Amino acid sequence: MFTTAFLVQALLASAAFAVPTSKERAASRRARRSGATRQSKPVDRITSPSSEVSNASYVEFSSNWAGAVLVANTATYKSVTGTFTVPTPKSTGGSSEECATAWVGIDGDTCETAILQTGVDFCVTGSSVSYDGWYEFYPADSFDFSGISFSAGDSVTVTATVISTTEGTLTIVNNSKGTTVSKTVSSSAKLCETNAEWIVEDFEECEGNSCSLVPFANFGTIEFTGASATTSSGTVTPAGSTLIEIEQSNKVLTTVSQSGSTVTVVYA
Question: Could you write out the DSSP letters of every residue in 149-190?
């Protein structure tokens, strides 16, 4: 009896220690990425949506972006910000890691040469979830922020601010945990400052010149509140923005709406 009880306790203890922490899962994810790079890309429009969505009222469809984009004809947008609640991503049934990301940025729609952007990735493998805050000045790859962590339910504010056409500052504030990270970045690519956006994306991972979308996670609902962009003449909301849905394999995966200073993206 003693031996049996001891073995049961030992097995339970070893099982408890075997469960990876969120930090361990994040480290494992970064290790898997050691031979790959993560990158958010300009919107990949679908010019001929499937018959399933041909009568939909939304203006645009893409394979990677869902959200709202303000578009100007000349250099206009100097910063963009929004606040959202970190979701609990759910697997759609696959065995591999599935991810999505929520971010704000300048350019990447009608101006595809550069994007100044920052946001939070949320990934799930089975029932294990992980989160990473990141920044990117496309066409360079993205980089993870250190010194900040996230949990489901955290309120997070993300902001991209233009300093010049080749320089900007990217900031994430975890309002729930009271932590802030910020990075000033530069690029040889030039911003047009003609787009400001609030986006949920199916991002890409690349090995060498081979890039592919990661399996897209069920992120539930992302609601960007306090969404605004600054211009030389003041602050504007996403009112009048272009709404974009994600369509993959002839199926629309998101529902997007905008009201006042709120942009809502729902996994359909």
Answer: ---TT-EEEEEEEEEETTEEEEEEEETTTTEEEEEEEE-SS-
Supply angle C-alpha 179, 183, 217, rounded to 5: 70
Calculate mean pLDDT across residues 173-188: 98
| Rounded CA separation 264/252 (Å) | 16
Residue of 126, 125, 145 whose CA lies nearest to 134 = 145
Strand boundaries in 30-149, DSSP class E: 37-39, 60-62, 65-71, 77-85, 98-106, 115-125, 128-138, 143-144
What's the rounded Cα separation, in Å, for the pair 119 and 263? 15
pLDDT at 21 over 60: no
Structure tokens at 225: 């509140």
* Selected catalytic residue, list 201, 205, 245, 247: 201
Burial of 23 (C-beta count, 10 Å sphere; 0-12/13-18/19+)? exposed
207 catalytic residue (yes or no)? no
Q: Where are the alpha helices (DSSP H) in 110-266?
A: none
92-140: pLDDT as tens digits: 987 789 999 999 999 999 999 999 999 999 999 988 999 999 999 999 9
Strand-strand pairing, 179-186 and 195-201:
unpaired
Nearest to 218 by CA among 122, 154, 151: 122
Question: DSSP alpha helices (H): ranges in the chain?
Answer: 2-18, 22-32
Q: Which pTM was predicted?
A: 0.85
